[in-house]
Each structure stands twice: as C-alpha cells, then as structure tokens.
Amino acid sequence: MRQKFQNWTRAHPLLVLSLAAVVGILAAEYDLPGLRECSVPVAALLLATALLRPHAWLLVSGCALLFAALHGQNLDSTYRHPLRLTLLQTDVIEHVTARGSLIPNFDDSRRDRVRASCVARIWLADGTLMRQQARLEVNLPRGAAFPGAGEYELHGKLHLPRESSNPGTFNAADYALRAGFAARMEVDAMTRLPGSGAPWRVAFLQAAENCRQWLSRELARDIEHDQATAGVIRAMALGVADEAQDEIEDAFRNSGTLHVFAVSGLHVALLGFIAWEVLKLFHLRRSVALWCLLFLVFAYAFITGWRPSAARAAMMIAVVLSAPLLDRETAVQNTLGLAAVLLLMSDTHQLFMPGFQLSFGVLWAIAAWSGLVAALLVRFTQLDPFLPPEYATWSQYVSWQFRRWLGGTLGVSVSAWVGSLPFIWLHFQTVTPVALIANCVLVPLSVLGLAVTCLSILAALVHATGAQIMINHANWFVAKLMVWSATWFSSLPGANFHFQPTTEQIITWRVLDVPDCGAANHLQFGAEHWLLDTGNVSGFRRMLKPYLRSHGVNELRGIVLSHNDADHIGAVEHVSQAFGRPSLFCSEREPGSYDQATTTLRRLQEGAFATQLQKLRVDAQIEFFTKPPVPVFGVCLHPSARSIGGRGDDRAMVLMAHLGRWRILWMSDAGIHTELTLAESATDLHCDVLIRSHHESDESGSLAFMQRASPRVVICSSNPNELTMLLPESLKAWCTANNVPLLDTWETGSVLLELRQAELRVKPFRSGQEIALSPP
Q1: pLDDT tens by residue, 492-515
Q2: Percent of the chain at pLDDT exceeding 90
Q3: Running DSSP on this structure, what letter comes out for residue 129?
Q4: H helices within 347-431, ranges in order?
Q5: d(CA 717, CA 324)
Q6: How confident is the model at residue 282 (pLDDT cuts 50, 70, 90)?
Q7: Three-class SS of residue 122?
Q8: What is the C-alpha R_g of the chain?
Q9: Cα separation of 13 and 21, whole Å?
C-alpha cells in the first residue's frame, strides 16, 4: 500500500501540491496557533531550501505554508477588516464618504437597484480616515443606472449583509465575505471625480453583458410565446436561470441534472467537444486547432457574462490543452492539480464555494474511476470475441457501438455521481440516485441543444433570419424534450430524497424567522414532520424549502393554517406539492365571508386541495404524531363560530400544543380582542412558551391575558424598519417586570425548542445563550 501511494504521488506531483494548498488554506481558516506569525518566513525558508536541495517534503510543506499566508491575507481584508469589526459592534455607520473606482456587477443587480463593487478609501462622519482600504459592495441610488468607468465620491451608510436567520438557508453575509467584500454601502448621492478609474475592466464587463443580452434576444426569436421554454434555453446557453420557472428548475435539480440546466464546467467542456469536432473538418494543424479551441472556449465564457463557473471551467480547459500545445503528455489528475493551484492562488476563498468543490471533485472522480467502471462493463461493451469485426452484420455492429457508447456514458455518470455525492450531501443534504440514468439521457440532449444553439447564433450573425427561426424552433423542441425527461426522471419512486441523520429521538419545535413578520413553525419527531403556517411564496424558495431540505424532510404529515393571510399561508400550495400533499387544517371560520376568490384559503377550498382541507372547531384536537413517546396533540382555542371581529387577524387560530408535560401556546396574529376574549373565558391558558406574531392594527400583550397565560418564555417577531411591526411596549414591560425572556427572531434568528422529559431547552440560532426550563 505504501509503495502504491508513493507511486501515485510521483505520478501526480501537481495534484499533491494542490492538496498541500488545501491543507494550508484550511489551517489558516481555522486560525491554528502561531500560524499567522510564522507562515511567511517559514514558507520562504522551506521553498528556498527546496530549490537548493530538492526534497518533496520541503516543497509540499512550503506550498502549504505559502497558501496559509495567502489565505490569512484574504481573511485580513474581509473577516478581520477593521471596518467589519466596527460594524459588528454598531450595526450601521451613517454619513460615510467613500472614494474609489466603480466596477459593475451585472449578475447581482436588481431592476430597481444597480449593484457595483468599489475598492475605496473611507471617511467617517467625523472626518476620520480609515487607514486600510476596503472593498465594498455598493448599492447605487434607486433608479440610477451604472454611470460608467471613473473615480467617484460616494455618500451613504455602511452595514453588513444580514446573516442567515435559519439553518440550511443562504447566508448572504458569509457569501459577501467570501467574495471579498468587507461591507455593503447604501449610496444616497454620488459625485464623479477626476480620474479614469478602471476603464478596460469596465469595458470588458459591459461588453460581456451586451453580448449576453443580444444572445438572449436572438435565442428567443419567434418562440417568445413560450416564455418557460425560452427561459430554459437561455439558462442552458447563457446562465440566465432567473427567467426559467421554479418548477422546471426543481425538475432538473430533483433528477440530479441541474448541471445541464445552468452554465457550468460541463457546458464549456461540451462546447469544446463540439468545436473540436467541427475544427477537425477543416483539417487544420493540431496546434492551430488547439489555439482556435482555446479562443472559442474563452469567448463562450466571455459571452456568458464571465460568470465564475464558466471562467473557472475555461481556465481548467486551458490548462488541460496547454499540455499538447507544449508537446507534453496529458495526465488529467496532474492537470487538475495545476488548475486548482492557479485558481486558489488567484482567490483562496474559492475553496469554500460549492461550485469549486463540485467541479474538481467530479472531474477528479471521472479521471480516477471512470476507467474502473468501464472495465467492469467490458463484457457488455465488447463484440463477440469469436467474431472478427469485419464479419459483423450491420445490426451487430450498431448494437456493439451502442453498447460501447452506453458503457462509456455509464462509466462517466457513475464516477461523476460518486464524486459529487459527498459535496451535494454536505451542502444540500440531498441524494439523487436517479441521476445515474438521467445523465445518460440529459447529457446527450444537452450536447444536441448546445449544438443547435451554436447554429442559431451563427445564423443570427449572418442575418439568416428564416434559417434562424427554423433552428430556434428545433432548439425549442430539444428544450421541451429535456424538460419532459427531467420531470419524468424526478417523478420516479426513490428518484431523490433528503437526508439528515438524527442522533436523538426527541420532539423539536422551531420558530423560523420569516420576513415581514410572517410565520412558519416546524414540529418534528423522528421522521414525522408538521408545519404551522408556511410563510409567503417568495419566502418558500429562499427560506422554507432550503430549510426543510437541510433537515431531511421528504414528506410532511400535516400543515396547520392559522388564517387567510398570504404572509402566513401563501406558500401552502407549493409546500403541499413539494412535500407529499399532507393534510391541511384551518379553523371553521375560514375563509371569511368577505375574502376574495384569489385568497389562499378560497383557492384551497374550491380547487384541487379541497379534499386535503379539514376545518377545526373550538376544542377540536389534532394528533401530531403516530407513535410519540408521550401524548402529543394540539387543541384549537379560537376562533369559535360565535367569535366576532372585523379583520382577518381576528380570526387567527389560537392553538395550545400539549407536548408531553410541556404546553406551547401558538397565538399567530391574534390581537387585543382575541386576548381579552380568551382571558375572560374558562380556558386554561397557562403555558411554558408563548409564540406570537403581529396583528395588522391592534397591539397585543394585554396584562389580563399575559397573567392568565403566565408564559416562562415569549417568542415573537418584529421588524424595526416598520413602525407597525415593532414589539408592543406592554409586552416588553410585562416580560421585564416578570423576568421572562423575550426572544425576538429579528435579533436571535430562528428559535429551536427541544422538548425532553426532564427539561425544555430554548436555543436561539444566532446567539449561543440557551435557556433551560425545568418541568413545572
């Protein structure tokens, strides 16, 4: 084994160096003691010694320390930047002046807000100049277009992107730091200063964006009537995935073929394959053909807007092609190591990007294992050994070629799936076994689609409008076939599932932080899951769906719908379709007599979900789990048929959850009218945890109600930027007077309740301060 390892390292020295670089970056990331002080001088000493007395351990150790020093510098410019450390203490710095050159960021710009980046000198409100420059993510004033290259003086405020509030969801703050931004600036006014800024870089990015916009229009010519399919074509060709429907993107994701849906290294490689086959027709010299191929690959990365995935793939292919250009033998694993070293040298933060990990993990797996898989299928792919090929019949020859192609495709598909599996599970907690066969269909279709796309672009360049329209319709057919295939594969039993190992069989309740004071709560025991409200439609894709996937949720047993409010239940149809069409529960007062036909509960009651909908009377019970360790059920306390109230929030369901010996009172948007009604009733309101949202007009937290409920912990939501969504003063006063913890999800993030027999643990997501309650 030792000899095999030594032979492998000698055969792939550049791959070993890339692994050493990874070790050094990880060491700097976790800030090993003494590393920052000694990495630079020790790395210089080891590398200098390696030049004089070549030894592998000297070179590998020096490379690791060199990359540790590089990553340490990158961390100092973002994570440890003085500006960020200041903002961690003050949240916002008002009235800031920044001076620097603006670089457009077309990929992250919105319709109402253009974004740019700027390496700037910063003056605070008192005139103090920060010594260290900072790279800022800049939001230009609303409605303002990118002003062009140049030096600018920007006036506005600085803040950090808001950190993730819920587990498993996108962390904008960490992403910005990995992208090199120390802070974000909201610009109120800007003035142009003397100086050209970075004209060449701005012109390059602007030209790339113009190319992408032109191609987007040309690829959709005469098929604009089908925006969904046109969006698929744009996504596959240009990476404009925002124009494709969410359901289509989910079909590709759930079939394990999302890499053919958006621009990735696969697209650049496929383009290189198509271009190489075309160049062979011209009988060019090999070196000339390789240079032409390099030009085409980088041109494609350019017209896609120079996206990181496409640029990274172009760089990898350029490294691969450099070997034959220099008359060197190509070793794929060694070449991947060189590409990784060069890319990490340009930006060490790329190591932590899922796209980087998947690209190199998949390509290494294909290089290392596809041959082994093909060897296992050799009997299937070979022609009859007793039949000379020249004597094979036409049908035997076709069958042989098909089996060879299928065996090679399966070898690549299996090795790629195995190589991607650990990274997909790590980042997305998803496993897609169907990808093993889906890729055998979708990848050839994507080759065909990309080839037709190239023909469409050529027809547009020569203004052959008639031919272009015919080609676009052929492209439309291929895209339709791909969507149908992805949808069919994703619908197969066991095609995909989400996995999250659980170590403890305990009941948990998580109060999610939902924007705009919406609501979504997740109740879990083992493999059984419930939701209490779902949040709105936009929050479903950004927050709720990633959260549920990260927790291994494949099916929901039921959803409790508090009231007919889009911010609370607007996503219920999407949730139901994605997670097994669970039972739906609402109060008998819903929908209200004046609710419009377009409201959520009206649609549920009158549409395809009517058979799933069950209405609850006061005192009706919901059995949450089938085999709980203790009695677990919910009791509806409000509203009854006699309840009055002129607003939808007055009909909000109030539920008392009995989870063993613990009682959780779920108030939703109930206001003062509901509180007083419950306080005057004979209902036992005593609870351990009170969970509440915001009534649209009334304050809540009345003294009479709080005394009857006597919660030991209160969990609520707010939005300090909206006057109508501030925490009620009466609630804060009662909690302060009675020494009851008041947890605001705006500040704490989501809150997890772990309900054990001996104690109830309350765990805020952002702060590490847990609260432990003993049984009453």
Answers
A1: 888 888 777 665 678 999 999 998
A2: 33
A3: B
A4: 354-376, 378-381, 394-428
A5: 61
A6: confident
A7: strand
A8: 30
A9: 12
Phi, psi of 256 (to 5 degrees): 70, 20
Looking at the chain, how many residues does it have? 776
Residue the block writes with tokens 């650990």: 422
- Tell me how far apart the alpha carbons of residues 521 and 715 are, in angstroms, rounded to a whole number: 12
- Is the four-CA dihedral 110, 113, 114, 118 of positive or negative sign? negative
Q: Are 514 and 543 in contact (CB under 8 A)?
A: yes
pLDDT of residue 641: 66
Cα 236 from Cα 310, distance rounded (Å)? 12
CA distances to 327, 516, 566 from 539, in Å:
54, 10, 11
Burial of 157 (0-12, 13-18, 19+ CB in 10 A): middle
Could you give the 3-state DSSP secondary structure of residue 380?
helix
CA distance 680 to 576: 37
**Token pair for 541:** 């894709």
Pairing of strands 134-139, 183-193: parallel
185 forms bridges with which residues in the sheet? 138, 158
Neighbours of 517 (CB within 10 A): 21
For 31-84, the three-class secondary structure string (H helix, E strand, C coil) is CCCCHHHHHHHHHHHHHHHHHHCCCHHHHHHHHHHHHHHHHHHHHHHCCCCHHH
Which residue carries 């309900």 as its tokens? 755
- Pair of tokens at residue 48: 């200098």
SS3 258: helix
Strand partners, 523: 509, 530
Cis status, amide bond into 13, omega within 30 of 0: no
Among candidate residues 494, 517, 364, the one with its CA nearest the CA of residue 432? 494
Please choose, from the candidates 605, 600, 674, the residue with its C-alpha nearest in 3D space to the C-alpha of residue 637. Answer: 674
Interhelix angle 286-303/265-280, rounded to 10 degrees, is: 140
Q: Is the dihedral of CA 87, 93, 97, 103 positive or negative?
A: positive
Q: Are 209 and 302 in contact (CB under 8 A)?
A: no
pLDDT digits (tens, 9 = 90+) for 741-766: 999 998 899 999 999 888 999 999 98
Matching residue, tokens 């947890």? 743
CA–CA gap between residue 662 and residue 748 (Å, rounded)? 22
φ, ψ for residue 598 (rounded to 5)? -85, -10
Q: Which residues have a Cβ under 8 Å from the Cβ of 345 and sit 6 or more positions away?
A: 21, 67, 70
What are 320-349's pLDDT values in tens digits? 777 777 666 667 788 888 888 888 998 999
Q: Please provide the DSSP assignment of 506-550 as one string.
A: -EEEEE---GGG--EEEEEETTEEEEEEE--HHHIIIIIHHHHHH
Lowest mean pLDDT among 142-146, 344-348, 534-538: 142-146
What is the rounded distance in angstroms from the CA atom of residue 277 to the CA atom of residue 330?
19
Structural contact between residues 645 and 673, judged by C-beta atoms closer than 8 angstroms:
yes
pLDDT at 189: 92
HSE (side-chain half, CA atoms, 13 Å) at 563? 26
Confidence tier at 722 by pLDDT (50, 70, 90): confident
- pLDDT at residue 186 in the model: 93
Q: Six-digit token pair at 426?
A: 């790590």
625: alpha, beta or left, given left = phi > 0 and alpha = psi -120 to 50?
Answer: beta
Of residues 766 and 739, the one with the higher pLDDT is 739
The 10 Å Cβ neighbour count of residue 71 is 24
What is 607-637 written as a DSSP string?
STTGGGEEEE-TT-EEE--SS-SS-EEEEEE
Q: Which SS3 state, helix, strand or coil, does residue 460 take?
A: helix
Upstream peptide bond of 639 is cis (omega within 30 degrees of 0): yes
Cis peptide before 54 (omega within 30 of 0): no
Q: Under a CB-based contact definition with an 8 Å cutoff, are residues 743 and 715 in contact?
A: yes
